Amino acid sequence: MVTTEEVLATEAGMHAAKALTTAWVHGQYYAIENADEAFELVCATIESACESEVVAKALFAESMNLITPPEGHRPGELNLSSWQTVVAILAASETVSADLDVEPLISGDNVEAIIAAAYAGK
Length: 122
Prior knowledge:
The protein is an all-alpha fold. It is built from six helices and no strands.
Protein backbone atom coordinates (compact mmCIF):
# COMPACT_ATOMS: atom_id res chain seq x y z
CA MET A 1 0.00 0.00 0.00
CA VAL A 2 1.26 3.42 -0.91
CA THR A 3 -0.09 6.92 -0.30
CA THR A 4 1.21 10.47 -0.15
CA GLU A 5 1.87 12.99 2.60
CA GLU A 6 -0.83 15.17 1.02
CA VAL A 7 -3.45 12.45 1.55
CA LEU A 8 -2.27 11.78 5.10
CA ALA A 9 -2.41 15.49 5.91
CA THR A 10 -6.21 15.34 5.75
CA GLU A 11 -8.34 13.83 8.49
CA ALA A 12 -10.25 11.72 5.95
CA GLY A 13 -7.02 10.53 4.32
CA MET A 14 -5.44 9.53 7.62
CA HIS A 15 -8.65 7.78 8.69
CA ALA A 16 -8.79 5.83 5.41
CA ALA A 17 -5.10 4.85 5.67
CA LYS A 18 -5.54 3.61 9.24
CA ALA A 19 -8.71 1.69 8.38
CA LEU A 20 -7.21 0.05 5.29
CA THR A 21 -3.98 -0.88 7.07
CA THR A 22 -5.87 -2.23 10.08
CA ALA A 23 -8.05 -4.40 7.82
CA TRP A 24 -4.95 -5.63 5.98
CA VAL A 25 -3.17 -6.58 9.21
CA HIS A 26 -6.26 -8.29 10.64
CA GLY A 27 -6.68 -10.18 7.35
CA GLN A 28 -3.10 -11.40 7.51
CA TYR A 29 -3.53 -12.58 11.10
CA TYR A 30 -6.77 -14.33 10.14
CA ALA A 31 -5.19 -16.08 7.14
CA ILE A 32 -2.19 -17.23 9.18
CA GLU A 33 -4.33 -18.49 12.07
CA ASN A 34 -7.07 -20.02 9.85
CA ALA A 35 -5.32 -21.11 6.66
CA ASP A 36 -7.92 -23.69 5.58
CA GLU A 37 -10.80 -21.26 6.03
CA ALA A 38 -8.85 -18.50 4.28
CA PHE A 39 -8.22 -20.79 1.30
CA GLU A 40 -11.94 -21.60 1.10
CA LEU A 41 -12.76 -17.87 1.22
CA VAL A 42 -10.41 -17.20 -1.68
CA CYS A 43 -11.98 -19.99 -3.74
CA ALA A 44 -15.51 -18.84 -2.92
CA THR A 45 -14.67 -15.26 -3.84
CA ILE A 46 -12.59 -15.88 -6.96
CA GLU A 47 -13.80 -19.21 -8.32
CA SER A 48 -11.59 -19.02 -11.42
CA ALA A 49 -8.51 -18.89 -9.19
CA CYS A 50 -9.33 -22.35 -7.89
CA GLU A 51 -10.22 -24.16 -11.11
CA SER A 52 -7.16 -26.31 -10.50
CA GLU A 53 -7.15 -27.12 -6.80
CA VAL A 54 -3.57 -28.39 -6.94
CA VAL A 55 -2.30 -25.14 -8.49
CA ALA A 56 -4.48 -22.98 -6.22
CA LYS A 57 -3.22 -24.75 -3.09
CA ALA A 58 0.39 -24.38 -4.22
CA LEU A 59 -0.05 -20.65 -4.87
CA PHE A 60 -1.88 -20.22 -1.57
CA ALA A 61 0.90 -22.03 0.29
CA GLU A 62 3.47 -19.73 -1.31
CA SER A 63 1.39 -16.68 -0.37
CA MET A 64 1.20 -17.93 3.20
CA ASN A 65 5.00 -18.30 3.25
CA LEU A 66 5.31 -14.69 2.13
CA ILE A 67 2.93 -13.23 4.73
CA THR A 68 3.99 -15.38 7.69
CA PRO A 69 6.65 -13.37 9.50
CA PRO A 70 9.78 -14.74 11.10
CA GLU A 71 9.67 -15.44 14.84
CA GLY A 72 9.44 -12.23 16.83
CA HIS A 73 7.91 -10.17 14.01
CA ARG A 74 4.32 -9.23 13.23
CA PRO A 75 2.49 -9.88 9.96
CA GLY A 76 2.65 -6.89 7.65
CA GLU A 77 5.54 -5.14 9.36
CA LEU A 78 7.48 -2.75 7.19
CA ASN A 79 10.73 -4.27 6.09
CA LEU A 80 13.31 -2.10 4.33
CA SER A 81 14.83 -4.99 2.36
CA SER A 82 11.39 -6.04 1.08
CA TRP A 83 10.69 -2.52 -0.15
CA GLN A 84 14.14 -2.38 -1.76
CA THR A 85 13.19 -5.56 -3.65
CA VAL A 86 9.97 -3.86 -4.81
CA VAL A 87 12.03 -0.91 -6.07
CA ALA A 88 14.38 -3.27 -7.95
CA ILE A 89 11.42 -5.00 -9.62
CA LEU A 90 9.76 -1.70 -10.55
CA ALA A 91 13.06 -0.25 -11.74
CA ALA A 92 13.53 -3.18 -14.11
CA SER A 93 10.39 -2.04 -15.92
CA GLU A 94 11.49 1.60 -15.61
CA THR A 95 8.46 2.37 -13.44
CA VAL A 96 10.68 3.97 -10.80
CA SER A 97 14.33 4.98 -10.64
CA ALA A 98 16.66 2.24 -9.43
CA ASP A 99 18.20 4.67 -6.93
CA LEU A 100 14.87 5.48 -5.24
CA ASP A 101 15.50 5.73 -1.50
CA VAL A 102 12.52 4.02 0.15
CA GLU A 103 13.66 4.42 3.74
CA PRO A 104 12.11 7.88 4.23
CA LEU A 105 8.94 6.63 2.55
CA ILE A 106 8.35 3.91 5.13
CA SER A 107 9.12 5.95 8.24
CA GLY A 108 8.01 9.11 9.98
CA ASP A 109 5.23 10.29 12.25
CA ASN A 110 2.36 9.49 9.86
CA VAL A 111 3.65 5.99 9.18
CA GLU A 112 4.13 5.35 12.91
CA ALA A 113 0.56 6.56 13.65
CA ILE A 114 -0.87 4.24 11.00
CA ILE A 115 1.17 1.28 12.25
CA ALA A 116 0.12 1.93 15.86
CA ALA A 117 -3.55 1.97 14.81
CA ALA A 118 -3.19 -1.19 12.73
CA TYR A 119 -1.64 -3.21 15.53
CA ALA A 120 -3.77 -1.87 18.38
CA GLY A 121 -4.90 -4.88 20.37
CA LYS A 122 -2.55 -7.28 18.58
